[in-house]
């Protein structure tokens, strides 16, 4: 393994609840994941990132963690998790897990202790308890303070089931250092840090957003980095959502996080000038720091890329999710395939959210009574939320559950996913799955960490060359464009018309 495996890695995001169900209860689990590891090895990814796998009441899909040192029984056991890590490593796949430091669960031992100990107790100092509520709003809608029967209020930036930790308390710092060690000692290669920018709070400044990106948060990650550096090649990946690129880059200073998700690229509309600007800005902020950029098209929080790119408005905005807005899926599909070749060709690491490699669309018609996302309830049933991108994967067969497992999946799969199963797409040379397989294979030797050189092109075309000589050309215009001189076409996201690259199509050239 190269020393810096993570700098150019292709990282596959496993949303465990929806990946593969090994025990037939309708929910994905470690047993299912372990049997599907050969699929991931064959796909050609270098690492997996798993969403939280800890014991949890599932108020927010597991981002409400009751115990940071164990595994949710629905997903399996700690022993199974250890086996999974070993098996993944044996296949050359690194393992990144999710750590949630901003908040816990109301079911955690610490929160229960705080409730029992009562107002004024040291146990309450690990969270934010107050006699009077503040006026901050929850990110999921509604107030961010909830009152207890004893009269006090506690802060939760997300769901009431997710009380925020008080990061001015040294016990909280110590706890998370122990948690990081717990998992690094078990062989985990990296930590994805949930809501990384909101840990520190300023209640006094009167700012309704007095928790985003306060300077003191960086000291926390310097401590984490020192800890990670005691181990061999373990990485910290930040979930840092906010538009200011200069502030974003501060998280990537050499003594802080190794990488962070590039949400600017994800949120960018499918438009040539905007994409070029996003790419250039990303390179300009990362390269001077020596931090590799990351390229993200989707995850478990945003609408599926096929659906997004088929809409009239192709940008992404958390505050305006456009759930249910009509989409031309054929167009979205073409663009999503082109976008995949673009993202995989750019310098740095790339994330693939499960199902992206199958071209799955967003599921807009989940029956309301089955929706689990707290956004749905907290918004007073006005925002359908994120369940539509979390529907269990279709593996094989002609009807649901499409090989996901023996039981009825926790969210229903559309009937027409029969065309999108792993089995169906494996047999189809032109499928999105086979495009991802081919691209990930080429990417291993010729792409990843490094830089790019832009080639001269029409303004509606993005064209650049990588150090290996591979050239990526993406046509975002309405008319076909002639390919630049080349020896051969290595891969294309759609059918070429001789030397012409059609609209919304990408090609990799040698
Ligand atoms: C970001 C996670 O990706 C999202 O799924 C979760 O709801 C929030 N953080 C709160 O933990």
Automatic annotation (TrEMBL):
InterPro entries: GH, GH13_cat_dom, O16G_dom_2. One of its GO terms (biological process) is oligosaccharide catabolic process. It comes from the Bacteria. Residues 13-390 form the Glycosyl hydrolase family 13 catalytic domain. Signal peptide: none annotated. GO terms for molecular function: alpha-amylase activity. Transmembrane segments: none annotated. Pfam families: Alpha-amylase. Belongs to the glycosyl hydrolase 13 family. PANTHER family: ALPHA-AMYLASE FAMILY MEMBER (PTHR10357), NEUTRAL AND BASIC AMINO ACID TRANSPORT PROTEIN RBAT (PTHR10357:SF179). This is Alpha-glucosidase. It comes from Planobispora longispora.
